[in-house]
Design brief:
single chain; mainly alpha; Four Helix Bundle (Hemerythrin (Met), subunit A); globular
Length: about 130
């Protein structure tokens, strides 16, 4: 990942307090937290009949923005297969969030979310060491 690029983007927008983060692990964990929170809020409000449409719209937009940030931070040349795999996972989540928005029900985006949670857990373990 090109951590400085992501951190600079966050500092510019002061997105969710990432401007305070100094190390790459903290930035990634904060971004993952924000993505997980946005997707869960989107899932909670997915139904057109029972969900809060404003929350659904805002959380969807937030999730898509965070996904784009994560994708653009990947160094596909130096990161090799791991970077490509992460890009594909983020893209899978993005595509299925869009499909879920269209159908009004949670489908495969929940599978991708579980993978994001697992990756965040791995980053937390890296940060501990």
């Amino acid at each position: 990942m090109q951590f400085e690029k992501v951190a600079k983007a966050y500092r510019k927008t002061d997105m969710f307090g990432a401007a305070e983060a100094r190390d790459p692990e903290t930035v990634v964990i904060m971004v993952m937290d924000e993505l997980i929170k946005a997707v869960k809020t989107f899932h909670k409000n997915i139904s057109i009949k029972t969900g809060d449409l404003i929350s659904r719209s805002k959380s969807f937009s937030r999730a898509i923005s965070v996904i784009y940030m994560l994708q653009s931070s990947l160094d596909l040349e130096r990161g090799e297969q791991i970077a490509y795999d992460l890009f594909r996972l983020y893209e899978f989540l993005r595509i299925h969030l869009i499909k879920d928005l269209r159908t009004g029900s949670v489908n495969k985006s929940s599978t991708a979310l579980n993978s994001i949670v697992d990756i965040k857990t791995a980053w937390l373990n890296v940060a501990k060491d």
